[in-house]
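hey can u check if this looks right to u? its 400 residues, i copy pasted from the old doc so theres a chance i mangled smth
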Amino acid sequence: MFLPSIVIALILLIIVWFYFDFTLGRKKHRTSFSKRETPILFGNFDIFPHGEELFADYFHELKMAVSHIHILFYIVRDDEFSQQFFDILKAKAKQGVEVRLLVDRIGSHKMKNPVINGLRNAGVQFAFSNRIRLPFLFYSSQVRNHRKISIIDGKIGYLGGFNIGKEYIGHDPKLSPWRDYHLKITGESVPYLQREFLIDWNEYATDHVIVNSRYAPEQPKGTVPHQFVPTEAGFLEEKYYNLILNAKKSVIIGTPYFIPTKKLLHELIRAAKRGIKITIVVPFITDHMLVQEASYRYLRKMLVEGAQVFQFKNGFYHAKSIIIDDELCDIGTANFDKRSVFLNKEINCYFYDPAFVNRFMDIVHKDILDSKPLELDDLNKPNLLRSIKEGIAGAISYFL
């Protein structure tokens, strides 16, 4: 009896430690993050829903860089496609271009020392963001930098859902073709995107930099009004809540993981009850264990309220967007889930131009046509294995 008692005591001790580590870590995080967003700015945008087209353009612009390249990704793999990316960065660094690469410590765990040393030896400045740190080891292991930002010469920016790896260009048979939304940005807002990169870089890089004019040359205005909103530590919930609260006709949500917070689910239900048309686009296949089962409990509630749910079937749907009343849209890095709201560092771009929203709607409508409606009867059919998975997923939905 002595040994089982010790094991039980250790398990309880670990649970208590996790609880206080997470609670205190989150409290400190919330007090240390100052909410910020850019003013309404003007720029020009290209939208890339396909990885092959995006990276052909992206790699071309990287090769044309003359001053600096600043890049932040959540995931950078170590595969054949990633090697093309590394080769470009090393070649530009050898040419005298300042190259900074910042990647998430856990998201990019497959980047090993030989790859990192090869980049550094070529002159690339490399750093991991969001390393696991004392005193809150468990909490810091869960807070991920999910942003994907690139700035080239302070004149061209990229922001969206794609990372660096073969699956993003359709070379993973299970997840091919990969569907996502990524923006190419020019105009007066690029220096603001530059600033957000440098804030993250300065937090984790060993060689701190000073933001100055050479990183942010003055840019001509574009035509599309928009703003960037970086979020972390729960502040995204307020932004999403206000979008839904102010909807007058319709809300369209595209997300790979529909796991809303209690507050957001409640507001979506209220919107549906007051006659707002709710449309949700999610994947038919999944790239992570239990995330689909975690979504079912919320999708059932939305279907009961008359929402339309579509499961994308032409590959894997990883896009992140919200469209309100065909007048405002959000494209960025944040999923409509608890992890993006409470744990991840994210950055979204909000557009206030009906012409741009209509242009984006054409892409979303194409995705809906490539989807099948999900019916309430589909989720209510008896399925023991699914029910077990749903129970497990519900218990850990915060961390999925």
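The chain has 13 helices and 16 strands.
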